[in-house]
Write a structure and sequence with these properties.
This protein is α+β, with helices and mostly antiparallel strands. The chain contains 5 helices and 12 strands. Helix 1 packs antiparallel against helix 5.
């Protein structure tokens, strides 16, 4: 946990340096953070249920669990931050894995927006520029409907115990080379039991070059 706190302190320090490089950039960051907060508050649910695209054999990788496969995606900045997700083979077909016996794989699928009946809420603590902190609670599917339509999604699990799982969820805007980073956690005992709550710290509008160095530092520890 101490290393995690140090990572966040480094992240915020780098972000302050980036913003302080110019008055216009600083103003843009303030406005961008506030805009994102307001967009999240008013985000609508998707008009249709998610219909995950199930994989062809060429992108499947067998795991150590019977009939459980990883669908190979791509990495972003560092190898551990990826767009992979998990499926289970039933006969000659595959289904998205969402099962309490597989908390890590199920959490990844939830973060990658592959769970079609996602009824979870997410409690977001938004750390904005200028030491502004705001909170909001919203349906998780509304967040994905706002962000995942125009941004690439990546995640990785940072810690798991009997009762708690933690991870990082990143939305990357390729046009602006900026990311929104959520540090997320939940109780593994309620992860796949309908309506439960995910908790998240959100750091928004971060330059992607800062993230590359921070994640490499995290991996080396």
């Amino acid at each position: 946990m101490r290393k995690k706190s140090l990572l966040l302190m480094c992240l915020l320090s780098l972000l302050m340096v980036y913003v302080a490089n110019g008055q216009n950039v600083g103003m843009d960051k303030v406005e961008a953070d506030e805009l994102l907060y307001n967009e999240l508050k008013t985000a609508l649910p998707p008009s249709n249920q998610i219909i995950p695209v199930l994989p062809s054999n060429r992108i499947l990788k067998k795991t150590n669990e019977d009939n459980i496969f990883k669908v190979i995606g791509k990495s972003y900045q560092v190898e551990s931050l990826r767009s992979d997700y998990y499926v289970r083979r039933k006969g000659d077909k595959y289904e998205i894995l969402y099962d309490s016996r597989y908390p890590l794989e199920s959490f990844v699928n939830l973060l990658m927006n592959k769970v079609s009946d996602n009824e979870h809420s997410i409690l977001i603590t938004h750390h904005q520029y200028g030491n502004v902190v705001k909170k909001l609670k919203m349906p998780m599917r509304n967040m994905f409907n706002l962000l995942a339509r125009t941004m690439d999604v990546y995640c990785f699990v940072t810690a798991i115990s009997n009762n708690k799982i933690e991870g990082v969820l990143v939305f990357h805007n390729p046009a602006k080379n900026l990311i929104h980073m959520f540090e997320v956690s939940t109780d593994t005992r309620v992860l796949v039991k309908g309506k439960s709550q995910i908790e998240a710290n959100l750091y928004s509008n971060i330059p992607q070059d800062n993230i590359r160095s921070l994640f490499k530092e995290k991996q080396s520890k």
